[in-house]
Specification:
The protein is of the alpha+beta class and 427 residues long. It has 7 helices and 21 strands. It has 3 domains: 80 residues, RNA polymerase II/Efflux pump adaptor protein, barrel-sandwich hybrid domain (OB fold (Dihydrolipoamide Acetyltransferase, E2P)), CATH 2.40.50.100; 39 residues, no CATH class; 204 residues, Chloramphenicol acetyltransferase-like domain (Chloramphenicol Acetyltransferase, 2-Layer Sandwich). A hairpin with a 5-residue loop joins strand 9 and strand 10. Helix 1 runs parallel beside helix 2, helix 5 packs across helix 6 and helix 5 crosses helix 7. It is globular, with a radius of gyration of 28 Å.
Length: 427
Amino acid sequence: MTDIIMPSMGENVKEGLVVAISVKPGETVKAGQTLLEVETDKVTFEIPAEDSGEIVEIRVMKGGKVTPGDVLATLKSKPVESSNGPAVLEPMNAPVPVIPVASEEPKTVEKPEINHRPFPEVFPYQSGKKVVSTPLARKLARELDIEISKIQKAVNGRISFVDVKNYAKNRIRQVDANGHAPIARSAPPLPEFEKYGSVRYAEMTPTMLATSRNMTLAANLIPHAWIQEKIDITELEKNRKKHKKHVETAGGSLTITALLVKAVAEALRVFPLLNASVDTEKKRIITKDFYHIGVAVDTERGLLVPVIRNADRLSVTEIARELTRISAEARERKTKMEDLEGGTFTISNLGGIGTTGINPIVNWPQVGILGLSASQVEPVWQDDQFVPRLRMPVTLGFDHRVINGADAARFLQYLKKITEDTFLLLL
């Protein structure tokens, strides 16, 4: 009998969700055959059989959570004849590591006694002592699930309503060891909606939870600012339609997003501050000499941002082909972890849905994001007359700690210039 063990799911990934079970007890499987699919924050893992044999038991359920080391299934290995005659087990073919089981009981390790440094006298609430606080402070702490003894800021040793409120604000801004901000816990309890009518509940997917953490982090850490512009894409759209068959033959789709990825990469090369990150701990700006453009993709399980690497070195056809690949893999739950890492700037295109304007949140630790909206034909005064022109609203969101309004405006004007006259990209 062999236990199929849940392997490590990646650095800082603690749990996953079983989204598919491909086999049943009693079914015969081959080594390497997919048994289950487990979804984490961003990617989906296929768990294969480590040997050929019969599935004896499935130890998990679809929709259940698993952690590294959990037993997923039990397999009865199929014996085969070796060259020497006696039956042996087929060798394991395990593409994922199996967590070893200790052969003996772990030894008990005595934990050293920790001498905690007492708080100053102005905060007389060490462990076991009464915490002096106002009734309003205690009520708010209960609502926000805050241990009031952890609040050290108090006037004359008495914790006030304002102290609890400030503590909650600071906690939301904290970053955990994984680089994530916790989902905000400062909101008061929800009302009982069932009193007003029928309700339905749906558990948030791992991808939704990851987006919630990342957006909370970005919204609290980054002082956002936005600047808008309209880009005339009349000629760009004509050329896109003219050459799209050529790109389709090469295996890609010539979209406005693909064209903007190329233009943004060029603009970042000219304005490197938009391709940077803020190192608050060491008080410095990190500017990258590589241009990995993330593109937001809407999927059934939530928002993913796969990355097109070295977009400045790729042709538009290569970008279109790569964009087609990463978008399809995101929607089919086949995204690899490496396709989600290393982005330096993000593009979010909601034009296909028809939106006329967006204010996107910067994807930390980046400092800039470009939001694209639906283009519309508008009258434009040109050569002493109004002429119809196809114009696309764009919004640049940026980190105001690094980029001021003038920098953002110059970047957006340059992007507008090379998008409206794509020949400039060749010069």
